[in-house]
Amino acid sequence: MDKFFSDLRFCSKPQVSALKVAACALFVTVDNFSGCQIRRPEKLAFLYLQVTRPSRFSSFIHRLRANYPQAKRTFIFVSPIKARPLGIVSHMNTTHISSATLRDSSPDSPHDLVIIGAGLSGVDLAHHVSRNFPDWDWVAVDSNSDIGGTWNTFRYPGIRSDSDMATFSFPFKKWPHSGTLGSGANIKEYAREAAADIGLLDRLQLSTYVRRANFHTDTGLWELTLSIGPNGTDMSEGGARGVAQKEQTIWTRRTHFASGYYKHAEGFTAAIPGLHNFSGELIHPQRWPENLDVRGKRCIIIGSGATAVTLVPALHDMGAHVTMLQRTPTYVAPLPEVDTISFIYEALLPERIAAPAARHTHIWRDMIQYWLCQGVPTLAKGFFWLLNRCFISAEEINKNFRPPYNPWDQRVCKSPGGDIFKAINDGARVVTGKITQVEATGVRLQDGTLLEADILITATGLELQAFGNAELAIDGVVLPMNKLVSYRGLMMNALPNFSYTIGYLNQSWTLRADMTSRYMVALWKDVIRRDQGFAAPKLPEGARADKPLLEMESGYIQRSVHKLPKQGEDDPWRMRHDYVYESRRLLASDRDHDMAFGSDATTAAKALATEVLAAREAAAA
């Protein structure tokens, strides 16, 4: 092998390029389809740089030492590379929390844009707006006490992304860490740094809940009614955990909801018989108490989703005796601890193209795996079984990790380095069974077994809501969710200058968030260039619109589907959870398709308000 690399110096440039691509393809393929950390990819990168890129050799070695401190001085590793431990990182910010105050706008001096939400979606849109509309008067509000959205709300041990950071990070800001997945604290700090870079922190008002968004057809403006709490107060749900200090009304030409679809005020707790009987500590992961000591305590985690799969190894490492109690198993996919794809590309390719190349490799890998799971589910089930068998016994897999549904009918949980399986091998337990009753000392199962516990953790899911639970209205007529139809998964029928961000269920949220931002910027430019003022989707007469906005069988989606808008049967009224498809159809699409502009948009809004009002009066008669 060493002789092969030493001969590269005598190859022509096209030959070297071909070998470089082949090397990337080989190691990326092995990494993608093994599900486990491949051995010594860094040797390839090291030898390649030493022979063909001596000018980059020193910087590469410096980065190698910084990210992988266990490297030997020879730089030839004899064991799989591992990410540095994330540890428990404080959620306290290292840059300032925004203390901006919104000016009192009026119909005569409205804002150009109000962004509702300061998580990854809001930061992404703010980036594109600041670059494309430097003269706009735009502001942002968030009901939480700090920036970060989901990554500010969820603070349980081990909280991490369930998508690789090569695609979950912003395309305009490099993710600075080496792990395949990102910790919640690191993601939150990353979002805050991006917000500071674009000036969002100076335009953001926190602890501000949007109660109502009312479009006035006479002025063509949105009137937003805000409930504002004291600085540092969480105002989710308008003060479910805070007290409104004042009300404020602001006016804007455009409204964009980047608030996601999770209910931040509280999670979902299943109707578990006798839950009130438990004498120990009862915790929902969405409201994790600070400084909780679990060392030596018996912890039962009820649930089998991503939260439960994350908590098992985290609590086990903290010294707890952990049992994950699930009614139905879920698919768990082990991932490399370190993003080997990004590592190889950064070593072999120029810096300006390494990150985009890694990003698109991850995208295609995820989509191919999704297509295979949906198209050949029997083969996919066998593949998951083999991956799990690398860590645990066949008996354990057959008992607790073989779901009754096909892969990706519900979300697949990720396990970096197979951490949940390692915890099981070290004493953690997974139990599959139905709960008969919660007793004072634990949980009684249908087979009579009593699982004793000191701490009971109900990781039973999330509550969904649309637009932060704000009321949407036209000329004071409140619109029911079942009257709203999604257009391309980013606008709503007959709502002028209204948009929102929603991400993928089977890929990284940020992929679609960034596409949404770029689409809306392009549409706003079209409207300004035409001097038309307004743009609103217009559902064709007779078009069917009865599909759920989120098409997946996961329990948290199915029990909340009635709270969300509908979507249509075909483009452009249907959102496809397929980045490869949407990147072609969405960004290269005709932005005039089924759209109304100018006075036609306000006429469509009036017609929708009239229809809703007539239906309400008929129901009351």
UniProtKB/TrEMBL annotation:
GO terms assigned for molecular function: flavin adenine dinucleotide binding; N,N-dimethylaniline monooxygenase activity; NADP binding
Record's signal peptide: none
Family annotation (Pfam families): FMO-like
Key words, A-Z: FAD, Flavoprotein, Monooxygenase, Oxidoreductase
EC number of the protein: 1.14.13.-
InterPro entries per record: FAD-binding_MO, FAD/NAD-bd_sf, Flavin_mOase-like
Root EC class: oxidoreductase
Cofactor(s) required, per the database record: FAD
Gene3D superfamilies in the cross-refs: FAD/NAD(P)-binding domain
Family classification: Belongs to the FAD-binding monooxygenase family.
Protein's name according to its UniProt entry: FAD-containing monooxygenase EthA
Gene source species: Corynebacterium urogenitale
Gene name per UniProt: ethA
